[in-house]
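User: Here's a structure from my thesis project, written as structure tokens. My advisor, Dr. K., wants to see whether a designed sequence matches the one we expressed. Can you design one independently, without my sequence as a hint?
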């Protein structure tokens, strides 16, 4: 239970000098770091600015990492970006090198990619690379395992030759046929390894909205796109769009190249992007089309719905992700989502940790809506 002294200490750090409470030497340093961001004096005028003092900001960034836990550091950095024009100072390579890298910082650098000076670009790429590498360590293996496992099950051989029998799977499938008198299992069903495909087994198209609100989703989409592109049995295409369409498939090998190819903001023409992607689909029944968008259509909605219906009819597995992020879905067009739902195309938000399961479900051609329900994911209902 928190003591009265601890409670007063916390209020002192929140309110500044307006709350009279003695501070330890360490807390005085924390208070100075907070005052640099929020101002000093009292609760009303805890406001401040950095001006052109990049060295002071650099020291402040180092201080907050020393005095506060990582979760608090990320909040303070985000406040600095949004409220104190730190965004402009990110163009300074020395300052950028002292910032704690995280997904939000990557989205800020993506938004600034067109104006980052030459002397800062190398540092910016290093910052983005450090975040991407950290996320790859967390996200790559679950997706690789889920997709590979789903492909293996999708090609499972139920009439194997002797050399093709998967004995572990066969034994597990026939445990109920144990014969005590023979001390043996009599297999009623043989399960074999899937014969190695001589061609691509699935095509995956990630069609990604470049709206500013989708920035975090773009980071995760780029990473997952790169992972799937490395799987020989999956042909992956990554397409970004606003009112124009940019195919980033040739950059799939490196998520950092993908992210620096993004131009956040601008209008939105989903219909145009879907039309482009349709031309790239070779085998509809083996294709998974993932539209990552908030569904605010600036193009022709009627044509978009017609294209979606035709894709669904041709056998394409089509999914709309309102967000692929930890922070949840941004504002989105529920009306268009309902119209897509009426066509049998589910629309919902998905966290990065749920994405491997989603892709495995789609590869196995199982019910996406049922999978979402099991994950307690809210799906936009069809129009009533």
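Assistant: Designed independently from the structure alone:
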């Amino acid at each position: 239970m928190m003591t009265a002294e601890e409670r007063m200490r916390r209020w002192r750090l929140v309110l500044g000098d307006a709350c009279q409470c003695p501070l330890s030497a360490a807390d005085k340093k924390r208070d100075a770091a907070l005052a640099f961001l929020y101002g000093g004096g009292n609760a009303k005028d805890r406001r401040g600015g950095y001006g052109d003092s990049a060295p002071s900001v650099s020291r402040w960034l180092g201080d907050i990492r020393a005095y506060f836990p990582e979760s608090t550091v990320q909040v303070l950095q985000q406040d600095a970006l949004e409220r104190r024009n730190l965004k402009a100072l990110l163009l300074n390579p020395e300052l950028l090198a002292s910032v704690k890298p995280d997904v939000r910082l990557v989205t800020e650098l993506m938004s600034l990619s067109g104006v980052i000076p030459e002397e800062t670009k190398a540092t910016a790429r290093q910052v983005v690379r450090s975040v991407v590498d950290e996320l790859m360590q967390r996200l790559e293996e679950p997706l690789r395992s889920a997709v590979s496992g789903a492909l293996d099950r999708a090609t499972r051989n139920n009439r194997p030759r002797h050399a093709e029998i998967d004995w572990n799977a066969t034994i597990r499938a026939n445990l109920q046929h144990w014969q005590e008198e023979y001390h043996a299992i009599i297999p009623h069903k043989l399960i074999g390894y899937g014969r190695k495909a001589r061609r691509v087994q699935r095509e995956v198209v990630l069609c990604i909205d470049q709206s500013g609100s989708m920035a975090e989703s773009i980071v995760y989409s780029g990473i997952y796109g790169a992972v799937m592109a490395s799987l020989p049995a999956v042909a992956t295409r990554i397409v970004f769009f606003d009112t124009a369409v940019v195919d980033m498939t040739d950059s799939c090998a490196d998520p950092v190249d993908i992210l620096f190819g993004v131009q956040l903001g601008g209008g939105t023409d989903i219909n145009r992007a879907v039309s482009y992607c349709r031309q790239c689909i070779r085998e509809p029944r083996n294709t998974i089309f993932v539209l990552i968008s908030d569904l605010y259509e600036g193009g022709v909605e009627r044509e978009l719905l017609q294209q979606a219906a035709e894709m669904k009819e041709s056998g394409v597995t089509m999914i709309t992700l309102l967000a692929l992020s930890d922070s949840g879905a941004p504002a989105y067009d529920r009306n268009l989502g309902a119209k897509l739902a009426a066509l049998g195309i589910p629309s919902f938000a998905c966290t990065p940790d749920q994405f491997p399961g989603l892709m495995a479900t789609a590869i196995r051609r199982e019910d996406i809506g049922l999978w979402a329900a099991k994950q307690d994911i809210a799906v936009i209902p069809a129009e009533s």
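When you compare it with your expressed construct, this may help: Strands lie at 178-179, 184-185, 202-209, 234-241, 245-247, 287-292, 317-324, 347-350.
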